[in-house]
Amino acid sequence: QVQLVESGGGSVEDGGSLRLSCVVSGYTGGNYCMGWFRQAPGKEREGVAVIETSGVTTGRPRIADSVKDRFTISRDREKNTLYLQMNTLKSEVTAMYYCAAGLFRGYCTTSASSYNYWGQGTQVTVSS
């Protein structure tokens, strides 16, 4: 079973940067969609950035329009780690951030319902 452990969250001021990490274990092969989601209090969980991965390759990422010029998703295959680099942070991105994985079925969606495995979350707080 795939297990995901996030880290890297914290409190920063407007304009700051953070890099979230998600260490993946239990991967036994096949193509997966992996991504980052966030959930603010009283709001639904929403996709931030997703990417198709396999044991060898990494596909083209999909990033939410609201952050696509500031956030980058990447993967280090050797370290079994997924990253989310977040730059020029603004207070509206304050939320719990989750790493997620789901079987690839032809397309990686930013819909949370398509992902079966979730980490415990890491809090990101941006103060103005």
Describe the structure in your own words.
The chain is 0% helix and 50% strand. It has 128 residues and is mainly beta. The strands form 2 sheets. Strands 2, 4, 5, 6, 9, 10 and 11 form a 7-stranded mixed beta sheet that branches. A 4-stranded antiparallel beta sheet has the order 1-3-8-7, with no helix packed on it. A hairpin with a 6-residue loop joins strand 4 (32-39) and strand 5 (46-53). It is globular, with a radius of gyration of 14 Å. It starts with a strand and ends with a strand.
Helical amount: under 10%
| Largest beta-sheet characterization | 7 strands, mixed
Distance between the termini: 40 Å
Unreliably modeled segments: none
Structural class by SSE content: mainly beta
Q: What is the overall shape?
A: globular
| Order of helical and strand elements | EEEEEEEEEEE
Q: Enumerate how many helices there are, as a single number.
A: 0
Name the average pLDDT: 93
How many DSSP E strands? 11
Rg over CA atoms, rounded to whole Å, is 14 Å
Strand residue percentage:
over 45%
Quick description:
The chain is mainly beta and 128 residues long. The chain is built from no helices and eleven strands.
Q: What are the defining features of this structure?
A:
single chain; 11 strands; mainly beta; globular; 4-stranded antiparallel β-sheet; 128 residues
Explain the layout of strands and helices:
Layout: E1 3-7, E2 10-13, E3 18-25, E4 32-39, E5 46-53, E6 62-63, E7 71-76, E8 81-86, E9 95-103, E10 117-118, E11 122-127
Parallel strand pairs: 2-11
Antiparallel strand pairs: 1-3, 3-8, 4-5, 4-9, 5-6, 7-8, 9-10, 9-11
